[in-house]
Write a structure and sequence with these properties.
238 residues, alpha+beta, 27% helix
């Protein structure tokens, strides 16, 4: 009996010492657990991984390109053409005269475009465009005649330049000006005492028109320069 009583006392003592230790462990583990309820849904940022600080970094947007300044009066921007500077079109190289102003072509058909500043007593500038020729020369000369009120007979001279056939065409009269020449619905604006001066070139890449027009005095001012440009024609080096 004495042994049994002593054994019971030992067991009771061990249990009494274990209870505080177990209580301490429960407190420690409860403090380390996630305070968020077990079944709480993750935030959208956590779900797609963008909660990472590196992924939240903002990428700066590129600075917008500066807008080009429009030309005065809505006309194509003009800039001085460097003396002796050449341009190439359809296998043909040409030098634009000093004093002409290069412009952005008004449409895709034009391969180059220049403004010829007007003479002292004229109001309007001259203009030269370079386009591939569609149809034969005779048909186009007839079309140019119809751009005048009087349909004048043209003065045509031919020559060879760097082995290429060139025809120079001149017409004088009352020019029926159109801002959009190919628009059949636009009425022509009568401009008396005008001149068309054109060069038709059999270039390596096909027939090309260098057509200029403007007030007669302005065109006379630039006629020698026009001839110098024709003399500069040469096949472009590929």
């Amino acid at each position: 009996m004495k042994f049994s009583t002593r054994f019971i006392d030992i067991v009771v003592s061990i249990r009494a010492s274990l209870v505080p230790s177990l209580l301490l462990l429960v407190v420690v583990f409860s403090g380390c657990s996630d305070s968020r309820p077990q079944h709480e849904e993750p935030t959208p940022e956590e779900a797609r991984g963008s909660a990472h600080p590196a992924l939240k970094a903002q990428i700066p947007a590129p600075a917008p390109a500066p807008a080009a300044e429009p030309a005065a009066g809505g006309e194509p921007a003009a800039s001085p053409w460097k003396p002796g500077e050449a341009f190439v079109v359809m296998g043909l190289k040409a030098k634009a005269p000093e004093g002409w102003l290069r412009q952005k072509p008004a449409n895709r058909m034009r391969k180059a475009q220049f403004k010829l500043p007007h003479a002292a007593n004229d109001t309007f500038d001259g203009e030269l465009t370079v386009i591939p020729a569609f149809g034969g020369m005779d048909a186009n000369v007839q079309r140019w005649k119809q751009q005048f009120k009087e349909a004048p007979e043209p003065l045509i001279t031919t020559r060879k330049v760097a082995g290429m056939d060139v025809a120079i065409v001149q017409l004088d009269g009352t020019y029926m000006y159109k801002a959009r020449p190919m628009d059949p619905n636009e009425a022509g604006q009568a401009r008396p005492d005008y001149r068309v001066l054109a060069a038709v070139v059999q270039a390596p890449g096909g027939q090309v028109f260098f057509k200029s027009f403007g007030p007669r005095a302005t065109m006379e001012k630039w006629q020698e320069a026009f001839t110098d440009m024709v003399d500069s024609f040469a096949p472009a080096q590929e």
